[in-house]
Write a structure and sequence with these properties.
- It is a single chain.
- By secondary structure, this protein is an alpha/beta fold.
- The chain folds into 3 domains: 71 residues, Winged helix-like DNA-binding domain superfamily/Winged helix DNA-binding domain (Arc Repressor Mutant, subunit A, Orthogonal Bundle); 130 residues, Nucleotidyltransferase, domain 5, CATH 3.30.420.40; 150 residues, Nucleotidyltransferase, domain 5, CATH 3.30.420.
- 38% of the residues lie in helices and 21% in strands.
- The protein has 15 helices and 16 strands.
- A hairpin with a 5-residue loop joins β2 and β3.
- The radius of gyration is 22 Å and the shape is globular.
- The two termini are 32 Å apart.
- GO terms for molecular function: protein serine/threonine kinase activity.
- Transcriptional repressor of xylose-utilizing enzymes.
- InterPro entries: ATPase_NBD (IPR043129), ROK (IPR000600), ROK_cs (IPR049874), WH-like_DNA-bd_sf (IPR036388), WH_DNA-bd_sf (IPR036390).
C-alpha cells in the first residue's frame, strides 16, 4: 500500500482521480457504468480500479445486474482508506476530529477555548490538542492522513490561508496556515465556515445532486457562498459571498463593521439581541408566547431573510439555496415556511427555478465542513471534467 501523504505524484494521475471522484459522487457505481460515463475502455477502467482497491481508497460491495443480466460489482469509497484532521474554531469552543473519506467522524474532542485572545496562543492550544488526539491513532492511520482542514468565521485569503480579519475574535492579519504547518508535519487548508458548510452538504449531505448552488449562513452574522459547476466561487481576495454587508438601509442600524444598515442587522442573532436587549433564546420564547414586540421583530427578520433568498436567485440563478447556520438549526421559527414568503418577493421568472434546502447534519456541521475543504481539494483536479459528463 502506498503512503497517501508523500506519494502525491502517483495518485494525482488524471484518470486515477477522475474515477475516484466519480465513485465519491455516485457513492455506489460499477466498472461498466464508469466506462460508459468516461468513455474509457473497460480494460483501462479495470486497471485503474485495481490500483484504487490496492491503495485501499475504494471497496467492492454487493452486486447489481449489468448488461445482458450479468452481475456487476459495485464500488464505493473506503472509509478506512484515508483520513483528515478537521478543526472547527468558534468564539467559545474549538472542535478537533479525525474524519474518514466518507465524512464519518471517528474520534473527536472539544476544547472550551475562548478565541478572543492572542491568536498565537489559540493556535498553540489547538496544535497541542491535535497532537493529543493523534496519540490515540495507530501508525497505519497516521500515515493515511491527507491534510488538516480548518473552518472559522472571517475574511480569509485563499490559498495562502491568512486571516485578514475575524471581528468576533478580534483577529487581524494572522498567518494561520503557515503557523500551523511549521509546527505540524501536514498541509493545512483553511476557509470560512460558510464555504465549509456548503462544501459539506455538497459532498456528504442534502446538496449532492446540485452543481449550481448558493448558501445563506445565519448566525451572529450573515454570510454567503456560491458553487457553480461544482466549484466554489471565490472572487477577488476570496471575498465573494459577503452578503451580510450589503447596504439595505443607509440610515439603518449600526453594524459591527462600523457602517449603517447592513443586511445582517435585520436578522442575525447579535443584532436581534441588541434591538431586544435580551438573549436570542429569550426573544424566540417571547415569540412563541405570541408577545407582540417579539412577533414584530421576528416577522421582520423573516421578511428580510426571504428577500435575501429572492435576491440571491436573481444574482446567481442557483438550482438550490442552502439555509444553514446556528439561527437556522436552533430556531426553526425563523425559516419554517420561508419558501412561500420568498416567492412573494421573487421575480416571476425565477419563482420555481430553485429549491430551498436545510442541512442534513447540524451537530457536527462545522467539523464535517472543515474536513470537506481537504476532500474537495483532494478531488478537485478533475471536477470540471466530471461536470461535463452526462450522468
Amino acid at each position: 500500500m502506498f503512503n497517501l501523504k508523500y506519494d502525491q505524484k502517483r495518485i494525482r494521475k488524471y484518470h486515477y482521480f477522475l474515477l475516484l471522484s466519480l465513485i465519491q459522487k455516485h457513492k455506489n457505481i460499477s466498472r461498466t457504468q464508469l466506462a460508459k460515463i468516461t468513455k474509457m475502455s473497460n480494460t483501462t477502467v479495470g486497471k485503474i480500479i485495481n490500483e484504487l482497491i490496492d491503495d485501499e481508497l475504494i471497496l467492492e460491495i454487493g452486486n447489481t445486474v449489468g448488461d445482458a443480466g450479468r452481475r456487476a460489482k459495485l464500488l464505493t469509497i473506503n472509509s478506512k482508506g484515508a483520513y483528515i484532521i478537521a478543526v472547527e474554531i468558534d468564539l467559545e469552543y474549538t472542535n478537533i476530529a479525525l474524519v474518514a473519506l466518507n465524512g464519518t467522524i471517528l474520534s473527536s474532542l472539544q476544547i472550551n477555548l475562548n478565541a478572543n485572545q492572542n491568536p498565537n496562543t489559540v493556535m498553540d492550544i489547538i496544535i497541542k490538542n491535535i497532537k493529543l488526539l493523534m496519540t490515540k491513532f495507530q501508525p497505519e492511520i497516521k500515515e493515511k492522513i491527507l491534510a488538516i482542514g480548518i473552518g472559522l468565521p472571517g475574511l480569509i485569503t485563499w490559498p495562502k490561508g491568512e486571516v485578514l480579519v475575524v471581528p468576533q475574535f478580534h483577529w487581524k492579519d494572522v498567518k494561520v496556515k503557515s503557523y500551523i504547518e511549521a509546527r505540524l508535519d501536514y498541509i493545512v487548508y483553511i476557509d470560512t465556515d460558510v464555504r465549509t458548510a456548503l462544501l459539506a452538504e455538497s459532498l456528504f449531505g442534502n446538496m449532492t445532486q446540485y452543481d449550481n448552488s448558493a448558501c445563506i449562513y445565519v448566525g451572529s452574522g450573515v454570510g454567503g457562498a456560491v458553487m457553480m459547476n461544482g466549484e466554489i466561487l471565490r472572487g477577488h481576495h476570496n471575498m465573494l459571498g459577503e452578503i451580510g454587508h450589503i447596504t439595505i438601509d443607509p440610515d439603518g442600524a449600526l453594524c459591527d463593521c462600523g457602517r449603517l444598515g447592513c443586511l445582517q442587522t435585520f436578522f442575525c442573532s447579535s443584532d436581534l439581541e441588541k434591538k431586544a436587549q435580551m438573549p436570542i433564546n429569550e426573544i424566540f420564547q417571547a415569540y412563541d408566547r405570541e408577545e407582540l414586540w417579539a412577533k414584530r421583530l421576528i416577522e421582520q427578520a423573516r421578511k428580510y431573510l426571504a428577500l435575501t433568498i429572492a435576491n440571491i436567485s436573481c444574482i446567481y440563478n442557483p438550482e438550490a439555496v442552502l439555509l444553514t447556520g446556528p439561527m437556522i438549526w436552533k430556531y426553526p421559527q425563523l425559516s419554517d415556511g420561508i419558501e412561500n414568503l420568498a416567492q412573494t418577493y421573487a421575480w416571476s421568472a425565477l419563482k420555481t427555478s430553485y429549491k430551498i434546502v436545510k442541512p442534513s447534519e447540524t451537530r457536527n456541521n462545522g467539523i464535517i465542513g472543515a474536513s470537506a475543504i481537504v476532500l474537495n481539494e483532494f478531488l478537485r483536479f478533475t471536477n470540471d471534467d466530471i461536470n461535463n459528463f452526462d450522468f
